[in-house]
Amino acid sequence: MRNETQAFASLDQLSSAVQNCEKCPRLRAYCRAVAREKRRAFRAQVYWGKPVPGFGDPAGRLLIVGLAPAAHGGNRTGRMFTGDRSGDFLYAALHRAGFANQPVSTGRDDGLTLTDAYITAAARCAPPDNKPTRQELDNCRDYLQQELALLKNAHVIVALGQIAFEATIAALTDRGVVIPQPRPAFGHNLAYRLQAYLLIASYHPSQRNTSTGLLTAAMFDRVLERARQALR
Questions:
Q1: What is the pLDDT of residues 79-98, one digit of tens each?
Q2: Of 40, 47, 49, 77, which is the most buried if we count CB atoms within 10 A?
Q3: What does the DSSP assignment read for 190-218?
């Protein structure tokens, strides 16, 4: 059964609730263990080790939904797609497209700002093997649904990977958006008009996908250009 959250009046309130969330004991135990043990390269750093809130421009018209923080990325730095290879790929692309003021993201105090874009994820805690359970995703779904409510200008959504794609559709359904039949199917750079929203699917910028060529910079640039055109 899905755990529902209270309604929040602002993104700051929602961010605070996310950071203090304890809905998923398995994920909380894993994130804390990773934060204690650390990776050798980051031994001197203090890991965040908590659920990671969304990040970006509260007035943004573009919403990017990822899978979850990386164990030694967002779980270390406290910001989505920050301090890992996926983030290197994503923020470089957002900078090329004009949504980010710089192409790199190393920590919460690195000066990165997003313009007209906001980044969140289907799961707010780093999961073992990057595989949250169905119940864990359901536990986080209310946070995504409430972000959709609070990000009043966001009407173009880029979902990174199939799990994020399905989580977004579920959260939109919670918002009362009617999902057409046949149900939208995941596929790279496929787009679906869902009432007031345009949902664009993309392969996730994981190191596996980018190193094998399943997702190239040019492919992802086309996704962001499609989003940019929709915003125009």
A1: 999 999 999 999 999 999 99
A2: 77
A3: -EEEETTEEEEEE----HHHHHTTSS-HH
